[in-house]
Amino acid sequence: MSQSVLYDAPGPRTRRRIAVWSGVAAVAVAALIVVAVQRLVANGQFDAEKWSPFIEEPAVLRILREGLVATLQAAAYGIVLAMVVGTLLGVGRLSTHRWVRVPCTLIIEWFRALPLLLVMFFFFLGVPALTGINVEPLWSVVFGLTLYNGAVIAEIVRAGVLSLPRGQREAAYSIGLRDGQVMRLVLLPQAFRVMLPALISQLVVLLKDSTLGFIIGYRDLLEVSGTIHRNLDNPLQVYFVVAVLFILVNSALSWLAHRVEARQRRKYGARARIGVDDVETGLEQGADVAVHAATPSGPRGRST
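Structure (tokenized):
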């Protein structure tokens, strides 16, 4: 059977050209890195006194720890609430009832179109101006993350459910399940396993987006890093350490999510892989039962 490809395999001449230009690009990038390092050395950016506060100063470590805890707190609240809101909105958009589907669709499209920072500003400045209720910076960040990322997660949920074979829904209906039971018991468990990589990516984005809270005065990791480098006059070193912390946290989140995915695959893999033939067989059996039940019977219960 022929296999379609998007492009032809490169010939010997093209491969040589690719190798030459790849080598030139690698040399150019290496040269830029060497020049940058030389400039940093000349400006004293690798001097010990610029890096030692992160090891020898307890106050600096305490401030960084407090900022990291604040970032993780906002991200944790946002992740939990965004998952709940996103799942409810995604299921609502798939509803067969128009009075549920239309409002959910409008909410999703509205918050997907708004910038996240604008949503945070609304809760931090708009809600007090409209209602007189002051919203703390933490909850302004959390509500903004929840609504914006919840709208995105709703689309991920919708795509995950629609990616399942149509026979899954039809087989569930054939055994008498209602719409809510089909979604809750059959479609959503499989859809979450399918869309787990996309969810991981969106949760990492949510964690990074929590740093926008420094604009409204939330003392997260990015906000306290500004305080540190203004006092120590070493912005390059401070933001390098902050970048490493974010990389470690995001890597831990990705590792945890992949472990959950692997565990789910080992636990449900054999049962989750329902072939098309199995679905068709189940539908045919359901049809046979329905035909048999509809056949007229004699006085003694035997078919006439």
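The chain is about 80% helix and 0% strand. The domain at 73-220 is CATH 1.10.3720.10 (MetI-like fold).
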